[in-house]
Amino acid sequence: MEYFIQQLINGLTLGGIYALIALGYTMVYGIIQLINFAHGEFFAAGGYMGVILLSFLSANGYLATNPWLCLSGSIILAMIYCSLLATGVEKIAYKPLRKSSRLSVLLSALGMSIFIQNGLMLTQGVYDKPYPSIFSGGGFDFGNIKISYMQIVILLITILLLVFLNILVFKTRIGKAMRATAQDKTMSSLVGIKSDRVISITFIIGASLAAAAGIMVGMYYGSVGYNMGFVPGIKAFAAAVLGGIGNITGAMIGGLLIGIIEIFGAGYISSEYKDVFAFIILIGVLYFMPTGIMGENVDDTRV
Amino acid sequence: MKKPILELKNVTSGYNEIQVLKDISIEVFEGEIVTLIGGNGAGKTTTLMTISNIVPATSGEILYYGKPIHKKPADVLPGIGLCQVPEGRRIFPRLSVENNLEMGAFLRKDHKKIAEDIEYIYQLFPILKERKKQPGGALSGGEQQMLAIGRAIMGRPKLLLLDEPSLGLAPLITLKIFEIIEEINKKGTTVLLRLCNGNGKNYRQRYR
Amino acid sequence: MIQEFKSKGKNYLIGLIWFFLLLWPLLGIHSDGTLSFAKAFYVWFYIFCASIIVVTVYIIHKKGLTLPLVKPLASATNKIYGYAASMPKPVLFIIIGVIAFLFPFFTERYAQDTAINVLIYICLGLGLNIVVGMAGLLDLGYIAFYGVGAYTYALLNTLYGLSFWLSLPIVAIFAGIAGCIVGYPTLRMRGDYLAIVTLGFGEIIRIIFNNWMQLTNGPNGILGIKPPAALIPSFANGFSFEYLYLKKLHYLYYAALLLAVFTIIVVSRLSASRIGRAWEAIREDETVAEMTGINTFSLKLLAYATGAVLGGIAGAFFAARMRFVSPESFTFIESAMVLSMVVLGGMGSIPGIILGVIALIALPEVFREFELYRMLAFGASMTLMMLFRPKGLIPSKRMGVRSEEKEE
């Protein structure tokens, strides 16, 4: 039982990170029906920005004196960096293709993904980069259940970002404009919504969430690599599909589920095949429920 | 003589290679209700879409209050008082009725007046008030049409383009919708109406 | 010309500043706590100069100033095309065949090696073309069938000592079954879901290769696979047949050529057949195809299986040639590579795909010094290709617009 709870907590931590990445996929898909293959690379770029900034700060001694400030500052800077990256990619590779076939945009996205991945490799090296340790060891023990400070920080940041996103999408003017654009682009421009701007904002939001996720994955596993975006990217996409693509609440739930399934699969069945579980779930869900667990319902939760 | 609020001068437009409109000219004067009539494929919807610049005009000029608007992107037009209820209603299916109405006032900043206008729409169409929390996609066809018109009114248009407001509606609802069109017209909105069968009244009409 | 610079210049300048902002943190912030600008600026300046040249050439070209240069070139190529088109097809094929046959006599080992690669990828590209180009099903895990083929032959050969040619039918069957296994659950899905699920399947198969230690020897791969053999009549002691393992590169080249020709014939016959037309109908509009009496489900499954069989055969040859297989050869990037060959060349067009393969396999070999930047250039060119020539180098003649894309 204790093992179960421990795994559940680990799963939630990982799932929260997947949820953050999945949101970017689901929002972009909801608004321009594109599988943004470069999204995993935004996540990796975020992880790298985190390691670059945190090592810089730690070498200057700021990290030891002001860990919280450094961490939040790094996360915010990484988010800004990835927003810049995402807007650049969107303007160059996706916007001119707004009217062409789905396959063209998909391949263009794939090209961007390969480009960014190799750009990271060329500038940062082939080998994994270690993260400076911020919250050394430590944690809470409940009997055999251990929750590290790191996990708590990750969970808190994840919850904060998810709440923030929910408010942004469902309560604000720009959020409503986003949802309107996703539902009917022609009509939304007839009521005066600038769809290009809305699409850019969607990319920015998605990329900044991915950047935050990148930093947290880096902290959690202790290192980042140039190709770290691919597998989590696919799993996050699986999460988005699981929740019904385009559905924001669905992506959050889907991310958590994929995280938990992966950890449980690794813990109880086989750790070698942990990457397979997400895909099997994805295929199974799509086979029996092609519209995801939340279904394609006419309600508020879709973008 | 009064100046026209909207003037199309020899406008040509179409989709890709298919030319739909050839050299059409229309004048609409302030305070009028003008209807476009014509058979299937005559280009009525394309005319309205060209005015809103969803389908760009390939040649000719569109003047609104004497100023050319055919180069302006579609999304600034509601801000200068030119709103459209397009063919097939096109309400936002997953936004609530209330949000749909708010979207109509997207470019307006006067929050107090927006709230008043929403109340006004609810007066015009009481059924919408009952359903204000429901998603737009759950409404019936007639209710969706009311919502679409209400949403366009929310933009406080000086010129309202209406594409087939009576399509697929029961006669009673059609009557009601035409009453409301006349009512907003009396309040100072010019209306350019597109009908398929001439069941409108004796509105001024010019086409081609 | 100055006007052009002015109108485009602003966006272009913003783009360059943007690029510098993205580049600098990667190169300028160091983990030892220092900042530097020199290196980032250096790299940026290179790209700045290169892009200025490209843009200038582009603008000059747009203005028609290159016309005196381009025109004779264009007319020359047109003449060649016209000449080629006026020739009867068999003659054309014979010429190409003779060139392909004589290729090893005039070339070095290295060129032959590249040529074998090209031929293998032609098989793969044409196989994927059946799925993506003809039936319109986006498959991002195609390389899995290549892997299944390679591993099937590797295991048959190392465990049971079966020869290459005898293994081929078994490989085909296994790959076909794999195609059906992947195809069956995925065919109910729409385009984008299909893409991601096939990607998932591709990864699953790779992970299985990587982790099933007893069978596949995991990440270490399988060693000691025999190359294909030919039976050579021997008159040494009376009359008998003798095995000749095709270890020499040019023998392998001919074997690859044989497979490629076989694949080209299969695909061109298929595309001219009833089945091929049915696939194209499914690609253009699945619902209408179904209503005209095409059994869409079994035909889509057939497309998957055929594509898988061709990919599997190519895989078996790959294993036989390398005499070694490991899961690393079957990663997603390979799938992306094959897909981009198909798209680059022009979906549904056989000469286009051959050209696409040559462009993506042979050209990088020419620029071998820039090996490090190969994938970077590959990614960038993929995007640029979609921006400037989305239908491919030689577009297929029978390609319509998909119904869902026509809207809006």
**Total strand segments of chain C:** 4
Low-confidence stretches of chain C: 401-408
Helix content of chain C: over 70%
Q: Give the strand content of chain C.
A: under 5%
Largest sheet of chain C: 2 strands, antiparallel
Order of helices and strands of chain A: HHHHHEEEHHHHEHHH
Principal-axis shape of chain A? globular
End-to-end CA span of chain C: 35 Å
Give a count of the beta strands of chain A, DSSP E runs of length 2 or more. 4
Q: Report low-confidence residues of chain A grouped into runs of 5 or more.
A: 297-303
Could you characterize what this model shows?
The complex is a heterotrimer of chains A (303), B (208) and C (408). The longest helix of chain A has 31 residues, at 2-32. Chain A has one domain. Chain A has helices at 2-32, 39-59, 62-65, 67-94, 102-124, 149-171, 173-183, 185-190, 195-221, 230-242, 248-269, 274-288, and strands spanning 129-130, 139-142, 145-148, 223-224. Helix content of chain A is 74%, strand content 4%. Chain A has 12 helices and 4 strands; from the N terminus they run αααααβββααααβααα. In chain A, helix 6 crosses helix 7 and helix 10 packs across helix 11. Chain B is built from 6 helices and 9 strands. Chain B has helices spanning 44-51, 97-104, 111-124, 126-130, 141-154, 171-186; strands at 4-15, 18-29, 33-36, 57-64, 67-68, 82-85, 159-163, 190-194, 204-205. In chain B, the strands form 2 sheets. Chain B has a 5-stranded parallel sheet, with helices on both faces. In chain B, helix 2 (97-104) runs parallel beside helix 5. Chain B is globular. In chain B, 44% of the residues are buried. Chain C has 2 domains: 2-77, no CATH class; 109-399, no CATH class. Chain C is 74% helix and 4% strand. Chain C is built from 17 helices and 4 strands. In chain C, strands 1-4 form a two-stranded antiparallel sheet. Chain C has a two-stranded antiparallel sheet with strand order 2-3. Chain C is globular. Mean pLDDT of chain C is 82; it is low at 401-408. At the A-B interface, helix 7 and helix 8 of A face helix 2 of B.
